Every structure is written in C-alpha cells, then in structure tokens.
Amino acid sequence: MTSSDFETLKTELEPQIDAILAQYPQERSALLPLVHLFQERLGFVTPEAVEYISEVCDVTRAQCQSTISFYTLFYRRPIGKYNLQVCRNLSCSLRGARQIMERFRERLGIDHLETTADGLFTYEEVECLAACDRAPCMQVNLNFVYDMTPEMVDEILDSIIAGTYPVAPLAQSEQPERKVRGPEWSRASRKSAGAVGVPNANNGGGIDQTGRTIAERFRKFGIMPISSPGRMADPELVEGMVPAPHDDTVMEHNY
Amino acid sequence: MASYEPVLTKGIGEADLTDIGVYRSRGGYEQLRRAVREMEPDAIVGMVMKSNLRGRGGAGFPTGRKWSFLPKDGRPRYLVCNCDEAEPGTFKDRMLLEQTPHQIIEGIMISAYAIKAARAFIYIRGEMRQGYEIFMRALEQARAANLVGEKICGSDWSCELVAHRGAGAYICGEETGLLNSLEGKRGEPRLKPPFPANSGLYNMPTVVNNVETLVCVVHIMQRGEEWFASIGPVKSPGPKIVSISGHVRKPGNYEVPLGTPIRELVYELAGGLFEGRTFKALQPGGGSSACLFEEHLDLPYDFDSIAAAGSMLGSGAMVVMDDTTDMLDAAWVLQRFYAHESCGQCTPCREGTHWSEAMLERLLHGHGREVDVSLLGTVGDKIAGHSLCALGDASVPFLQSVVKRFPEEFLRGAERVAAIQV
Q: What domains can be seen in chain A, in order of their start residue?
C-alpha cells in the first residue's frame, strides 16, 4: 500500500472516524475503535495507520504502539486471510480440544501463531471464547464454529481452500511473512509479559509454547531440563543433546 | 425448583428477541418508560438496594451499595456495562448479548437514569464480534424508538449509550482495567483507592456493572424488590444464570434461583455425567474458583454457602470434571491462561503465574522434581494478595485446591527425576 492509497482510505473512512470521535468525551478513547476500523480494511495495523491514529487521538506514536501491543486481537504484521482461533481453555480441553488442535497443526504444517506460506491461514490457540456449552469451539475470522470434531477441521480447511466457506476472508494489504512469530532464539527465552506485552501473532517474545513440550525445547537448545549437579538428568534427553539444526526453512505448507 | 419460572432468560429460543417489535410486544421497555416518566432516580436506587441484588460479574458486591457510593458533587457520572466476559467456563453474558440485546439496553438505560449518568457505555469483548453486530442493530432500533439518546420516552432526560469493542484481553474484565481500555490505554488495572465510584472513567464518578446485574434491574423494576429478595437465600437472593460445562451430558446456561443445591444443577439440569464415569471435582465459579468435591455436592448454590466451603460463586460458571480428568493437565491449562493474561504490572503475578505454569509443564512431561509440588503452593501464597487486582489472586485457588486434594497426580510428574536422583 502506497501513501496515496492510505490517503484515499482515510478520506473514505472520514465519516466513520468522525462518528467514532463524537462518541467520546476524550479523543484518546477512540483509539481502540479506530484501530479496529483500520485493521478491518488493511488486515493489520500499518505504520501509517499508527501514525494517523496517534495524531487523531492526541497521543505519541509510542503510546499508540504500546496500547496496540497490549491487545491480542490487534496485529502489527500481516496475517493470513483466514485467522483460525481454536479455544485451548479448560472446558474445551475437557471435551477434546487437543484433537482439534493436533489436526489443525498436522493439516496446516504450522504451529500456534504462525501463518502458512501462501498467506491463506494464520493459526492461533486462544483462551476461553465463552462458548463452553458447545465445546470444543473455535472462531474463523471471529465467527464461531461450535461442537468441533477433527473431521470438521478438514471440512473447514477444504472449503476455505475451495473458496466455498461462508465466512469472508480478511483484508490483506500486504503478503504476510511465512512465519509471523519471532526468531527462534526469542521463543526459547522466557520473557516477562511486562517487558514484551501479551504474546500475540505480531509479538515474537513472550512465553507461549503450546504444542512444544519443555523436553523438545530443551533438546533443541542442548540445555539440561533440571540442574542436578554433576549428573545427567535423563538418559532419554542426553541422546537429544546435540543442538538441532536451525529449522527456519522447514515450514512449507502441506495442506 | 420445578415451580421456578425463568425470568432473565425468558423467551430465549422461542422468539426473536433481537427485534425491538418482538421485545416490546412482550412488555419490553415498559419499565424504562415508567422509570423515566414516573419515578425519581433515587427511588430506583432504593429499590435495588432493598432487593439485595449482588453483582453477577464475579465479586458479588451489593449493586445498590455500589450505586450509593457515588459522590454528590455535580461532576458528570458514567455508567459502564461490563460485557468483557472471559472467565473460563462463563458464557451467560454472550448468550444475553446475542439473544436479548434489548433487555441489556433497557437495563443499562434504567440504571443510567437511576444514577443520573451523563453517558453510558457498554464494553463488549473483542472476540464477541457477532454479538457486537447484533447489539449494534438493536441499539439502532432503540435509538430510532427514542429509547436511547435525546429526551428519552418524551421525558426531559437524555443519555447516550456507546458500544465499545475490546480487543482481546481478559484483564479488561477487571473494572479499572476496563476503564483504562475505554480511555484508549493499555488495559492495566489501577491502584485502588480511589475506587471508580469516586474516580473512574476520565477521573469522574463511575459505576461498572456486569451485564446480568443490569438485566436483573429490569426485573426488579417490573416485579418489585420484594419479589427479588424473596427468591433464594436472604443475603444473596435472586435468579442466577449458571453456565454449566465440562463433563456433563447437557452443558448450557440454566437460570435457577440462588440457593439451588449443586447436585440438582449437575445431575438434573445438566443431565449428569456420561455413562460409566464418576464425579471428581467441579469449579463453582469459573476458572478462578477453588474446586469443590463430592462432599460439597449438596451445598446450596449461593454466594455465602460457596464462600463458606472455601470457594466462590464468582461469575456462576460451573466446570464439571469426571474421573477421566488429569488434574495436573487441568491445572496447567488454567495456569497457562493466567500467565498469558497477566498484564505484567505487578511482579508477583507476572512472574508467579509464569513460573507456576513452567513448573506444571515440567511435571506434566515427567521432568518435575518433588519439591515442585510443594513449591507450587508456596508460589501461590506469594502471589495472592500481593498484586493490584484480583487476577493474581484468581490464579491460586484452583491450583492449591487440587494439589491439596490430589497430590499423587502431581507427584507422578516427579517420579522419573526422583528415580534418577537416588
């Protein structure tokens, strides 16, 4: 998107922007609604959008970015056209959410918070979606899908690929990078939420390691899981002590 | 129990209550009309006070008292309806939002009138995008019918209702976190006092109430405070929507009078457990509540009885777990949730939830140490009571209650390491 495109979009959205601003006694309150508005049109919160919103809301760009980075539904990098968000919380887990998640990872060949190479799917495992009576549940572009079964995973993916799925794709003003997660090293280190914000698709830091067991991670980085002085903790792990090769290239999509 | 007729959820599933015509034909918006035309605001506050209505969002604070705390100093007041429902296991507000949005609007407007609010807001969880759209259509209809906006129902009172979408943060369900989010900031909770009643939205006197609480107000208006106070126990009366999920045959929202025995909720309303399974534990009030066990099944489901048993009624979300549940796994799932949702302001909560999660994950994969199990309890003690808001406190009860009850399930995760370290 060029800057003149953004100007056009701004002009087009002006009536809506004015209406949003009029709702609040202070401009800054319009920050979240404006980010929603621009993200809906652009697919993610572009630097131009951040600059514009910070002007309108009378905050610095840093404050604007800081606020945006707090919320998991705001994306600061391009994501897929279909955002698949599967609930991983207790009620869904009790009723088979693990099988759903496994099937998605298997079919898409990507992990939590990653995007397929063709930019079609972003996969995310999220917290309670308030639909526990119809567990396991998920959302496709924030539209609920209830009573999930592993077979439904295939149906949903097939129908999206065939272009027959009833939910419209998200806007995508830029092609997403193959992996939206941060570099490998940042995933291994345990950072405080306060320092890096709530981990989300555009925030590589954080502490999310669903689907990646501690043992796997330790194996990868050649660290012993538990420091037991002068002693190898687990024969099984010793075998895996050789640091795995950097696997940044293996995430080809295979659905 | 059989004699109880649903009030809050009446008509759901029978008629399209999202349409204003249908809602009005069933007596909808009459209480708002009566309130603004015939009643003094203070009289409504008095009614709610006498009804003994307690907040339905989690903390169970008496609503009338919350309203009466507002200072009378002429500053503009705000009413904020909290529809950021994200407590694990809770799905009652989403049902109300999607099925009876007009009832919510009526409740908000009556309450806004009662506290003389300059403007009312509803904060709708970002994930509830479909519900938000339904609500916006209802709001347009209500505005066109002169039920929101200028000179409501022909009276002299005007009040605007603004729907504000969140963007994915559990902590924004905490009232001061919500207010910060509504002000366009990070949803980090504020230090209290000052309480929102004194210094809330834009530092003005503010009341934050849960969706179900405000819906109750409509029915207190309609049937009177005595009717409300007569349902269930004296100290925490009224109808309550209980969200039952997990290992039951018929999970769903069930409206019951407070004080209904837990056994009845699980085995009659929710259809009981699956064939061949036995009861293990349940959370009576969402992810943040301590587990109750077999011996608690005959307790009445109300604020005080559940609190006396060492748990809390919270948002009224019951998660039932049968004997197939691995408690270590369940504890890890919930601890990961708190670690993910901690806003990061306070060190005990930010670090404590994360390290508890790490210890649980370690145990879960058989790499734990025996000391981890007792350490989980110690870390919990260091979190609870040492942070600004209730999120830290909320991460502790479930974990501690199940570690205490089923220590062997947690110690199993330390067996492998114990064997090597001999």
A: 3-70 (1.10.10), 82-162 (3.40.30.10), 209-239 (no CATH)
Mean pLDDT of B356-373: 92
**Mean pLDDT throughout B157-175?**
96
Q: Which amino acid is at A239?
A: E
A168: which 2 tokens? 């419209």
Closest approach of chain B CAs to the CA of A245, in angstroms? 23
- The complex scores an ipTM of 0.94
| CB B187, CB B345: distance < 8 Å | no
Residue identified by tokens 């007596």 is B27
Q: What is the mean pLDDT of residues A55-83?
A: 95
B345 reaches A (C-beta below 8 A): yes
The 3-state secondary structure of B193-218, one letter per residue: CCCHHHHCHHHCCEEEEEHHHHHHHH
Instruction: Indicate the burial class of A249 (C-beta count within 10 angstroms; 0-12, 13-18, 19 or more).
Output: exposed
- Domain B327-421 matching CATH 1.20.1440.230: the answer reads yes
- Kindly state whether A131 is in contact with chain B, defined as any CB-CB distance less than 8 angstroms: yes
**Does the pLDDT value for residue A1 go beyond 80?**
no
CATH of B20-229, one of 3.40.50.11540, 1.10.150.20, 3.40.50.970, 1.10.10.10: 3.40.50.11540
State whether residue A143 sits within 8 Å of chain B by CB: yes
Is residue B373 over pLDDT 60? yes
CB contact under 8 A, A93 and B329: yes
Q: Could you say which of A72, A91, A134 has the minimum Cβ distance to residue B88?
A: A91
| Domain B239-320 architecture | Roll (3.10)
Q: Which of B219, B210, B207 is nearest to B97 (CA)?
A: B210
pLDDT confidence of A216, banded at 50, 70, 90?
Answer: low
**CA-nearest residue of chain B to A19?**
B162
Whether B127 and A192 lie within 8 Å, measured CB to CB: no
pTM recorded for the entire structure: 0.88
